[in-house]
Each structure stands twice: as C-alpha cells, then as structure tokens.
From TrEMBL:
Keyword set includes Zinc-finger: yes
Protein origin, superkingdom: Eukaryota
InterPro entries the UniProt entry points to: Rhodanese-like_dom (IPR001763), Rhodanese-like_dom_sf (IPR036873), Rhodanese_C (IPR022111), TrhO (IPR020936), TRHO_N (IPR040503), Znf_FYVE_PHD (IPR011011)
Residue ranges with Polar residues bias: 342-353
Keywords: Metal-binding, Zinc, Zinc-finger
Protein name: Rhodanese-like domain-containing protein 6 isoform X2
SMART domains assigned to the protein according to its UniProt record, in alphabetical order: RHOD (SM00450)
Length: 390
C-alpha cells in the first residue's frame, strides 16, 4: 500500500484541552470553517474553559485539522491528540447515535457535567490529580502487586456502569472501586457517599481518554485533608492499551463513544455477560437499552427479540419491573401505576408485548420507546445519545 493510500484511510480523532479560551466566538468560527472544509463529522464542544472533541474523517484531513489547531493558538500546546485508524461507520444506527452522521459544534457551560445538582464547592481544574503516564500507572499497580494489600492503593473507575461491564483494570491485592453510575453526573454523589473509601488512600483514577478524571480528581482533592494523593491515568485506557497491547492490567475491552463501540487488546477473553442468559458477551452494536433509564445493556444475539423490553441491573435493584408497565389504547406506554408494588425482575428480564392499533387490535411488536415517563426520574426521558466522553 502506498503512503497516499495509507493517509487516505478513515480515522477517528479524540482530544480535549482544559485552558482559558480568550475569544470563544473566534474559536467557534474556526471549528465551523475548518471542520466543514475538511469534511469532518462528529462532536465539538467548546466552553470558556476549553474544548472536548471527537471527530472522524480521512486521516489526511484529521492531520490537517491538528496542524491548523497548533498553528492557530498556543492554547493547544501540549494537547494529547489521539488519532486512530479504523473502518468507516457501517452501521447507520450506531453512527447516528454516536453523532457520526453530521457535524455538531456547540458552546456549552461545562465540557463534562460532574454533577446534575449545584455543588457546594466546585472543583478547580488546576487542582486535578497528578498525571501518570501509562508506564507509571502500570508500575504503580505492579509494585502494589508485590506488597500486602496494595500499600494503601485503590483504583477508581470514573466511567459508567455499562462501560465497566465489558472492561476494567484488575490488579492482585489492589481494590478496584466501581461506582456503578448510569452517567458521569452521578459520580460526584457517589464520591460524597463513599469518601471514607478514598480518605487516606493513594487513589489511582482512570477513564476512557482522561477528561472525566480531570474534574473528578479535582473534586476528590477539594475535600481537603486525607484526599491529597489522587492520581490519574494520562490519556486514559486508550493510551494504556497502546503502551501495553496485550492488555497489561486491563481486562476486556475499552468502550469508546464513537462508531467503533469498543477497542480491545490482543487478549481475546470476554469480560461481559448477557443480561438474560448470563453467558459471555460484550458486543453493544445491537444498541439494546433498558426500558426505564435507557442505559445500554448487553443482550446476546440468541436472546435478542425485536418485541422484547429489557430492565438493566440498576433498575432491577430499584425494584422496577416490565410487568408494572401498561399499554393503553392509543398505543403509548403508560407510566407504572402510582403506588404499585414493583417486583424485582432479575429472573424475568424481558417481556414481549404487542402494540395495540387504533382499533384496539394487537399489531406487531412495540417499535419505539423514544419518549416515555419513568417513575423515580421525574421527567420524560428520550432515547439517549451516547455521552460525549473520553
């Protein structure tokens, strides 16, 4: 293959940068012009505190984008540009959910939302945990393996539950804390409720590409005495797997927020399991989601059914059940009855209802759950696009 052919391959570029942006409107105009000229698709989020970007396109165009950023402003000096070669999106549904069928550029208040409610003390990004390179992170786990109880070391996974279900770090004698949150904005509450597990410890944090650890590590350190020793994996799991292609201490696959869905190491062991039959399975390409909270769930090909509804493990723990939902004459889903006793559905995770037509007769399977009311959330939930995370 010639160099020209290689550089015209498709690729994905991920990067973020926390920095003061002196002229946000100017940067917005730059991204609109540059990304459009280079035919880049994906998500660009800008704020006065930095940028968070995931875009795809021809490798030559992505490299031109990087060079234009470096030439434009010293703000991007030292930015970790993660550029990976991959196939173009083949699944339109996945590409659309991940935002890879259009170019979305928006100005936002926060690059990532640490909390869904106002915090008593907002963290300063300048107080974020110290960066550890992939090799330093690996050495810390390796050395802890040789000492009893990890020498006060704990691993903190800053990702969502569905991500950790297909891959996570595991090191002997080192405790891994998995907050099991649906979304990143729930993490601060978990930290508040579990601060005693972090106090006085050496906390090693990790996420997909690093951005979620920046704010979360600063939030932990803002708690004061006993929370000084917080470290974060620079470049996230992505850079770690590049350094340790056999997986190292990371087991399974790294969930990514683009059409690739997940990226694995040379180790082919499957960490995830099917929600229904509990057999090994880690493929989210079917985009099966919980009926209640819309979180992604793993359902193997043998257990998938177009008419089936699924309840994630978090909703099961909260006592939510498919049996508590009703279908009404108009063909819309009705909220679970107020005051109804909800049964735990761990042994009956799916139900296959049919949608009534206007004449009251039953037709084919329920086609869409794009908007419905969910007890306990207090709002109408749409089908969620993947969070823009690294």
């Amino acid at each position: 293959m010639s160099d020209t052919e290689g550089i015209d391959q498709y690729g994905v570029l991920l990067y973020y940068k926390y920095a003061h942006i002196p002229n946000l409107d100017d940067l917005l105009s730059f991204y609109h012009s540059n990304c459009s000229q280079l035919s880049l698709l994906g998500r660009v989020r800008l704020s006065s505190r930095g940028v968070n970007v995931t875009v795809g396109g021809k490798l030559s165009c992505l490299e031109s984008h990087i060079e234009a950023l470096k030439a434009k402003d010293c703000v991007f000096e030292g930015t970790d540009f993660k550029l990976a070669t991959c196939d173009e999106p083949l699944n339109d549904r996945v590409a659309e959910e991940c935002g890879f069928t259009s170019l979305s550029i928006r100005i936002v208040e926060e690059l990532v939302t640490l909390s869904s409610h106002p915090l008593l003390k907002s963290p300063e990004i300048s107080n974020a945990g110290r960066h550890l390179s992939a090799s330093e992170f690996h050495s810390s786990l390796q050395n802890a393996d040789q000492k009893s109880q990890g020498n006060g070391l704990v691993l903190l996974d800053a990702r969502n539950l569905y991500e950790t279900r297909i891959g996570k770090f595991h090191a002997p004698n080192v405790e891994t804390l998995d907050p099991q949150v649906r979304q990143y904005s729930d993490l601060s509450s978990w930290i508040d409720d579990n601060s005693e597990q972090l106090k006085g410890k050496h906390v090693l944090m990790y996420c997909t590409g690093g951005i979620r650890c920046e704010m979360a590590s600063a939030y932990i350190k803002s708690k004061g005495a006993g929370f000084e020793n917080v470290f974060q994996l620079f470049g996230g799991i992505q850079r770690y797997l590049e350094q340790f292609p056999d997986g190292g201490f990371f087991k399974g696959k790294n969930f990514v927020f683009d059409h690739r869905i997940s990226v694995g190491s040379s180790d082919t062991n499957v960490l995830g399991t099917c929600l229904i039959c509990h057999r090994s399975f880690d493929d989210y390409s079917s985009r099966c989601r919980c009926t209640y909270c819309r979180m992604l769930v793993l359902v193997c090909h043998n257990c998938q059914n177009e008419a089936a509804l699924y309840v994630c493990e978090l909703c099961q723990k909260q006592g939510k059940s498919i049996q508590s939902m009703q279908l009404i004459d108009t063909g819309e889903l009705k909220t679970p009855l107020e005051g109804a006793e909800l049964q735990n559905s761990s042994s009956n995770a799916t139900l296959s209802p049919q949608m009534p037509k206007g004449d009251g007769k039953m037709s084919g399977p329920l086609e869409s759950l794009e908007s419905y009311a969910c007890t306990g959330f207090g709002r109408t939930l749409p089908v969620l696009r993947e969070e823009h995370r690294h």
